[in-house]
Design goal:
By secondary structure, this protein is an alpha+beta fold. The chain has one domain: Pseudouridine synthase (2-Layer Sandwich). It has helices spanning 33-41, 65-76, 152-159, 209-212; strands at residues 5-8, 12-17, 46-47, 56-62, 81-89, 96-106, 111-115, 123-134, 138-145, 183-191, 198-202. It is globular. The two termini are 26 Å apart.
Amino acid sequence: MSDQVIYKSNQIIGFNKPSGWPVQEDKTKDRSFLSAAQSYCNKKLHLIHRIDRPASGVVLFAKTEKALKSINRQLQERSVGKTYLAIIQKSEIPSEGQLIHYLKKNGKINKSFTSETPTESAKEAIMQYRVVSDSNNYLLLQIALISGRHHQIRAQLAAIGCPIKGDTKYGFRRANKDRSINLHAWKLEIRHPISKETVLMEAPIPQNDIWGIFEF
């Protein structure tokens, strides 16, 4: 776990989670990233946010309840900066834009469905994207996540016909060999719960062939 630590203080600790590892225990009963992080820190940690099992990138935990409350307040105020990278099939989409949908989670199948107009129990989902690089077959998107909904980026990109590479749940034509999806929680920016200074955490880009074809 020490190799995955990207930031730590007495109040918070941030890790770079590999793809394929659930942040919390799921129905598979595989060991969770939270459990491993608690063993590494030798203390109880408070989960601040999640990223999906097949995705990689920054996961932040609070070491104290005071820190948890502080950062939860920032999340509610939408003052936390969340930047993701996603790889999609090359397509004719605007080079940048804002997507607004209304998402409704179906817990039985662990999937979110989008609509363009408000529906009962659906939550507003907002994200901004821009194309930052391309290859012969794929586009690399940089995404600013404004809200934080279940499977938000995956569902919203699928809604415009651009599912994330490897994400067969949301319509990509074939899975990645390691069952990952090419979605990476790249940067997380918060106010430190005690010093109030800006803290920017950045998770290194995954080291595999598909990410390596792009320039960062």
